[in-house]
Amino acid sequence: MPGKPDVGGDAADRSGISANRRTFMGTVGAITGASALGGTALADDGDEKTEVGGEGSRTDGDARNAILVIPDGAAQAHISGARYLKAYREDSEEFPLNVTPGGTTLHVDQAEQIGGMSTYPDNPDRTPITDSAAAGTKTYSGAIGGVGSEDEYTPVKTILEAAHEAGMATGLVTTTRITHATPAAFATHVPDRGVEDEIARQYVDDGNVDVLLGGGKRHFDPEERDDGEDMLARAEEQGYQIAETEAELADADSGKLLGLFGSESDRSAHMSYYVDREYVDDTDEPGLVEMTEKAIDILSDCENGFFLMVESGRVDHQGHANDNAITHEQLECDEVFGTVLDYAEDDATSETFAMQVADHETGGMSLGWDAYDMDWGAIDDIRASLEHLESAIDETGDDRGATVDVVEEHTGFELTEGEIIDITGGDLAKVLNKRTQMGWSSDSHTAEEVPSYASGPNAEFFGRYFDNTEVAVGIAEALGLEFEPGREIDYEFRD
Ligand code: ZN
Ligand code: MG
Ligand code: ZN
Description:
Elements: H1 11-14, E1 65-71, H2 76-90, E2 113-117, H3 132-137, E3 146-148, E4 153-155, H4 159-165, E5 169-177, H5 181-187, H6 196-206, E6 211-215, H7 231-237, E7 241-243, H8 246-251, E8 257-260, H9 274-280, H10 288-299, E9 306-312, H11 315-321, H12 326-346, E10 352-357, E11 361-362, E12 366-367, H13 376-381, H14 386-395, H15 400-411, H16 417-424, H17 428-436, E13 438-439, E14 445-446, E15 450-455, E16 465-466, H18 470-479
Helix pairs in contact: 2-12, 10-12, 11-12, 14-15, 16-17
Magnesium ion binds next to helix 5.
């Protein structure tokens, strides 16, 4: 059709990535292999859709597809917490005796290989604690898709870009802004994660991610971008359909897709927390499971296979906030991994590699505070995020009765006099954590290592303790992609 955009995958002419200036660097990328993955696919139901997938053709590996699920900031306590919450809900009488193999299980428990991963970055000051950007590439804190330093930044190729160049379809799905560090580290290159307008521009102009779903419309909207450029119109010119609601997402059935979702109150930032989407707001945002299903549905049209990264990105934010509702968010992530495993099992025509691993831990979360007990009924009852509760309390303007109503409405707790004093004094988190006995040692990231879960071809590569730089390596091996982590590329970013 006239004006039909070229969606094929020769990244040398489409994304400014040159194939002829490569040196292997001592530093290899972490989760993204920037060392990370890339690709494109084909729609089969009408000529108006832009095909997904790159132009290259790949030599088949053992796996046709790869799906990587990242619960940002989740280590063992987060996984255990999701398991306890699920077990409590399934049988509160039997709890905790049902928290066993053979009792309540998470989907990650079905993984063929369980291992553990390092998280430390390659930062000049030798901190063992990474930020999410550096975690994507094992680089200095704040860097997206490159190594070196902010002054001497060197872009490196990601696993998503390699997949794209091999003709595969690619997708990035998250509950944060799509321009946030984790997804950005798979497909864009900037010395500092803060330049999200530029990250949006790179997604659109490079066009090597076929399906982009998340929040962050403000970085595409000409009214909100600093340069006034209309990335929404430009994305459409590039062949992307644009969806902004759950219904519009449901309608998109093939072709390149840019989904930018948000809550009614703030449509341009992150998507809502699971508990707020589910129990508080009458929202038109899709859930992470739906987004994952749609991405798989579209990307699986590509005959060359696909690479998909799905991030449960706000687990990290609840870790920073020390919010008990993090367990609900982590449980949603586990449902996503179950969806991924179901797809891998149901698609008899091809093999899919599936993995869940976090980028680092956030919050120093612990299951227990200062007593030999936790109240999982209370954790189950907290059905709004701390952020929502705090802003609703703010809106009461120090009205004591209204404050009590807000907390009781969303938790069912009957507050004591002391708790009311603490809450009106601004210490809601402490009150809720005292009730539940959830513990926290930090409001930042920690150096804790993270558990990993892998299934499908080459899963055995991850059945051990491994370095975060090995994620992209193992996925490339599963896909049979030629890929060297840490390969320098020529890439023009705008300052
Ligand atoms: Zn992170
Ligand atoms: Mg993230
Ligand atoms: Zn964080």
